[in-house]
Structure formats: structure tokens, C-alpha cells
Amino acid sequence: MHGMNLTDEGSLFWRAARSVVDGDLESLRRLLREEPGLVSMVSPDDFQATLLHFVAANGVRDDYQRSPANAPQVAECLLDAGAEPDAFAGSYGGGSHQTPLCLLVTSWWPHGRGVQVELVRALIQGGAKVDGVEGDAAPLASALLFGYTRAAEALVAEGARANGAFFAAGLGDLVGLQRALEQDTLEGLLGGYVPVLEVPRPCSKGAVIQEAFHFAVTHGRLEVMEWLLRQGASVNGATQGHHCELPAVQALFVGERSVFDWLCQRGADLDLVDRKRGQCARDVLG
């Protein structure tokens, strides 16, 4: 590395990072040949992100958050060069959930570019642990909590563990949901689910049912929602959901207008204030 100044925007690291987010494979390969150690370096800022984290376009500097159309090929290039697929970044407080995979499945940029699913496959096939480095299902939980349906489905297709009421509801697995709700213990209901973000563990079966309803709303699972209503869920029931508290506000937040209409047809109160958002559904509609 020969005394390289990593803080310099013209340094090899930042040139490589720009090549990653611009999809400039030719430049990236040239830089990796010039300095193979780049693949394991971390950004000289609070994010402490490897180049593979930049592929996720999350947990890195704002001006480096973008996804090129060939992002999966960029990821494969880095993995082939020896990038650690489950490296930890310092973003969002650091820890074992700050891996490229967890950050990818909660990132708008690859989703908006249409490359998130391919990137999920590339990372897992490159060695990323599909159930997270602690085996706590963090990638799948994160994708479902943040509303990235196709990323969640891609994780399951690659072998992610999908036990418990919340996962089943979000994935539209009615049989799995019914099986989970037959369990007598809270641990059985949740299927080992660990709330990796800010959703507290529900304290009763009724709370699990309402939270599962929230997951189904987030991912547009109308059949599951209908069944959960018969089990005691409410279209106006508050939850501990990651973004919104009320089903109608959550449906609007994630862009599920057909789900919102479905909720309205079943009595959703559009004037109830969602305490997380500070708005009622009617306010969101404008």
C-alpha cells in the first residue's frame, strides 16, 4: 500500500469505490491488480465500509449511494478478488447485522435499479451466510421489516430459514402461518425470530396475530390478511411495526394502494393518528 493516503479523495480506495458505484468494471479490475489489498480495506470514515458494502449502496457516504445496472457483476468481481462476503461495517452503530447482505436487503438503490434480487444471489453464492452470521435470520427479518418483498423471496429461494408467524405472514405462506399459530409457546409462535431492529417481542398470541397482520399488509398478502382477521386481527389495530403503527398508514407508506383499499372496505378508520408517523391515513392521502 506504500504509504497510501486513504483519506484523499484521489486515493486508490476512493477511486475504487467510485468504480464500484459507477459500475466501471474495467477501472475496478485495474485498481485491484495495482493494489490487491483494496478488497479488504475499509473506508476511512465512521462507516468503515469495504468495497463490497458500497455495492449494497447502504451504510456508506450519501454521495456514494447509487446502484449501477451491472452491480451484480461488480459484486462478483470483488468476491472473486477475495472480498469477505460477511464483512462488518461500522454503519448504524456497527455489529454483526452490518454485513453487505443485511444492508443490501434494506437498501432502496438496488431495489429501484432492479438489481437487488440478482445481488442477493451473487452475495450468497459468493459465500454470504443466508441466515446471517449469527444464524438469527437477520437478512430475512430485515428485508421483511423494510418491505422489500422480492429480496425476501430471493433469500428464501436461496435457503433462508423462514419459520414463525411473522415470516410466514410476510411471505404469504398461509400454511406456515397456520402451523406457527398452533404453537403453545411464544418462542414457537415466533419460530426463533429475533427482532433485529426496533420491533419488541410481542407478549401474547393476540399481539403476534396483529403484528403478523402488519407484515402481511406490508407485503400485500391479501389472503393472509383475510385469514388473520378471522383470527382476531383488526384493520385498526396498532402494532410495533418498523415504519408505521396502523395498517392503513403502513399500506400507504409502502405503496400498497390495493391493500389500502381492501382495508378501507373492511372499516379502516382514516382519522386514527399513527403515533409513529404523527399522521392519520387521510393526512397521508393529502
The oligomeric state of the chains shown is single chain
Unreliable spans are 1-6
CATH-derived topology of the domain at 1-123: Serine Threonine Protein Phosphatase 5, Tetratricopeptide repeat
Number of strands: 2
CATH architecture of the domain at 1-123: Alpha Horseshoe
The helix count comes to 17
Describe this structure in words.
The chain is an all-alpha fold. The protein is built from 17 helices and two strands. A two-stranded antiparallel sheet has the order 1-2. The chain is 49% helix and 1% strand. The N and C termini lie far apart (55 Å).
Structure in a nutshell:
With 286 residues, the chain is mostly helical.
Entry keywords:
mainly alpha; 286 residues; disordered N terminus; two-stranded antiparallel ribbon
Task: Furnish the topology, listing elements before pairings.
Layout lengths: L11 H11 L2 H10 L16 H6 L14 H10 L19 H5 L3 H6 L2 H10 L12 H9 L2 H9 L7 H7 L2 H8 L4 H5 L14 H14 L3 H9 L16 H7 L3 H9 L7 E2 L4 E2 H5 L1
Antiparallel strand pairs: 1-2
Helix pairs in contact: 1-2, 4-7, 7-9, 8-9, 10-11, 10-13, 13-14, 13-15, 15-16
